[in-house]
Design brief:
The protein has a 5-stranded mixed beta sheet with strand order 4-3-5-12-6, with helices on both faces. A 5-stranded mixed beta sheet has the order 9-8-10-7-11. Strands 1-2 form a two-stranded antiparallel ribbon. It has 290 residues and is α/β, with parallel strands linked by helices. It has 3 domains: 3-86, Winged helix-like DNA-binding domain superfamily/Winged helix DNA-binding domain (Arc Repressor Mutant, subunit A); 90-163 and 270-288, 3-Layer(aba) Sandwich (D-Maltodextrin-Binding Protein, domain 2), CATH 3.40.190; 166-267, Periplasmic binding protein-like II (D-Maltodextrin-Binding Protein, domain 2, 3-Layer(aba) Sandwich), CATH 3.40.190. The longest helix has 28 residues, at 59-86. Helix content is 43%, strand content 23%. A hairpin with a 2-residue loop joins strand 1 (48-51) and strand 2 (54-57). Belongs to the LysR transcriptional regulatory family. InterPro entries: LysR_HTH_N (IPR000847), LysR_subst-bd (IPR005119), WH-like_DNA-bd_sf (IPR036388), WH_DNA-bd_sf (IPR036390). This is LysR family transcriptional regulator.
Length: 290
């Protein structure tokens, strides 16, 4: 049996007459009548008792009706899911992210995707820049939320999601002695808690260069590869952390955040979304809304 025959069968059942069913389906009445006759012949049973008053379903038709409705519903659902997958509105979207994306950016991204593609399943993985670059190049991630600049193999799209100035994370005991702000000289005197050079080379170089150009010696007391670890080291008195200003949204015991009075020469801390230019997902539209 063909799907068109099954839809015709249900239309006659619902309308109670072949003529009205044909009108509903926008086909010729003789064509629908012949289609049902072929269906009856294939099944070896009569489905409708035809008369001038309409078409009355037989017991066989009534027994079949719900199974046919269920079957067509499942077929329609399968077709819809296939179409959604083709247009990137269903399936699985694998997102890699650095820890700073957890604050403000990721909640916005999730809300936008849920609005435009509620059937899309999200797989979220907190990863370093290097891990994301490797995973994107291998096709193990669909999109990376990471710090710039980075070089990912293949044809990629990118968008800046947030651009932050650096702010100083200062041990609270030291902050009490400051006048709300801290200078580069004071930062240099205390020494730094920084991300490792190979993790964020552009940021590392920008910070050390800014200090040297201001005439100060660069003293790195501790390396820490995660933002929360940087804060823990600062709270423990290891030195000053230079972090993006969104960090002020976190209340971390033992740490006070201070603007840098002469920090214009410091680099910005950018958060990017990077994804394959061949992605089936509508990421350009979604990230434009973040």
């Amino acid at each position: 049996m063909e799907i068109s025959q099954l839809r015709g069968f249900l239309a006659i059942l619902d309308e109670g007459a072949i003529g009205r069913a044909a009108h509903k389906l926008d086909i010729a009445q003789p064509a629908l009548s012949q289609s049902i006759s072929r269906m009856e012949k294939s099944l070896g049973t009569v489905l409708f008792e035809r008369s001038r008053r309409g078409a009355k379903p037989t017991a066989a038709a009534l027994v079949m009706a719900q199974d046919i409705r269920n079957g067509l519903y499942l077929l329609d659902e399968a077709a819809h899911k296939a179409q959604q997958a083709q247009t990137g509105l269903s399936g699985t979207l694998r997102i890699g992210l650095v820890s700073s994306a957890l604050f403000e950016v990721l909640p916005k991204v999730i809300a936008i995707i849920r609005q435009y593609a509620p059937g899309l399943q999200l797989v979220l993985k907190e990863m370093s820049n290097e891990e994301q670059v490797s995973a994107l190049g291998e096709g193990a991630l669909d999109v990376g939320l990471m710090h710039s600049p980075v070089a990912v193999s293949g044809l990629m799209n990118e968008r800046v999601l947030r651009r932050d100035k650096l702010i100083a994370a200062v041990p609270s005991g030291l902050a009490l002695k400051l006048k709300k702000k801290i200078s580069l000289q004071q930062v240099a005197e205390q020494g730094l808690v920084l991300y490792p050079k190979d993790q964020l080379p552009h940021l590392y170089a920008g910070i050390t260069q800014a200090l040297r150009q201001a005439g100060y010696e660069v003293k790195i007391n501790q390396h820490a590869n995660r933002t929360m670890t940087v804060l823990a080291c600062v709270a423990g008195g290891c030195g000053i952390g230079l972090l993006p200003n969104w960090i002020q949204t976190i209340d971390f015991p033992g740490v006070t955040f201070c603007p840098i009075s002469d920090g214009d020469g410091l680099p910005s801390f950018d958060l990017l979304a990077i994804w394959s230019a061949r992605s089936k997902f509508n990421l350009t539209k979604w990230f434009a809304l973040v």
